[in-house]
Specification:
single chain, alpha/beta, Maf protein, disordered N terminus
């Protein structure tokens, strides 16, 4: 069940709970490491297909929680751990774009998105392994892709980089540099909204690095851009 911030703050800051990431994504691992907390990775296998008529934000939330729950099932029932699950979806005019299944699908996605603005939505789930308490939220970022040519797209897809990424692109790819501008959280587009996660983990009593402790509603994730 979801819990309010007040309920989550009942956890003492000294609680000896480990942090678990329900993902093997190297991008999410690099992002969560920014919080300065030791963590372990639990691989999970979840069907990421959207359900008919399901709103994109709901899909992202459902899949993030499904991943966290799948990781919980692999831990000891007595495990003192906080599990993080995340799922990122690209949305173009209401149509959800997941990871391309083939190079041709990646090319089609990039041609569809170029020169246009779309949304990237990440669902974020934080789950207490022992009690089952959860907090689920989403972050949305507006993204505008540059006017890339067919030749550029073909070369990028041939590199293999887009095949494991929603929308078939990586904002942090410096050689391809697909994104012209964004409005919102940068790390959300990479795959994990670090500011939102820092806020949740702080509320759950985990001692995140001081640089990421909540400061009102201001997103600090733009500081990641030059280093990713």
């Amino acid at each position: 069940m979801d819990t309010s911030p007040e309920e989550r703050h009942r956890y003492p800051a000294t609680a000896a709970r480990s942090l678990v990431l329900a993902s093997t994504s190297p991008r999410r691992r690099a992002l969560i490491a920014r919080l300065g907390l030791p963590y372990t990775v639990v691989p999970v296998d979840v069907d990421e297909a959207p359900r008919p008529g399901e709103p994109p934000a709901r899909t992202a939330e459902r899949l993030a929680l499904a991943k966290a729950s799948a990781a919980r099932a692999k831990l000891s029932p007595a495990a003192e751990a906080v599990i993080v699950g995340a799922d990122t979806i690209v949305v173009d005019r209401g149509h959800q774009l997941g990871k391309p299944a083939t190079p041709d699908e990646a090319i089609a996605m990039l041609r569809r998105l170029r020169r246009k603005t779309h949304r990237v939505i990440s669902g974020l789930a934080v789950l207490d392994a022992r009690t089952g308490q959860t907090a689920v939220t989403t972050r949305s970022t507006r993204v505008h892709l540059r006017p890339m040519t067919d030749r550029e797209i073909a070369a990028y897809v041939a590199s293999g980089d887009p095949l494991d990424k929603a929308g078939a692109y990586a904002i942090q790819n410096r050689e391809f540099h697909p994104v012209e501008w964004i409005e919102g959280c940068y790390s959300n587009v990479v795959g994990l909204p670090v500011c939102a996660l820092a806020e949740e983990l702080s509320a759950w009593g985990l001692d995140v690095d001081a640089a990421w402790r909540p400061r009102g509603r201001r997103c600090q994730c733009d500081t990641l851009e030059p280093r990713l």
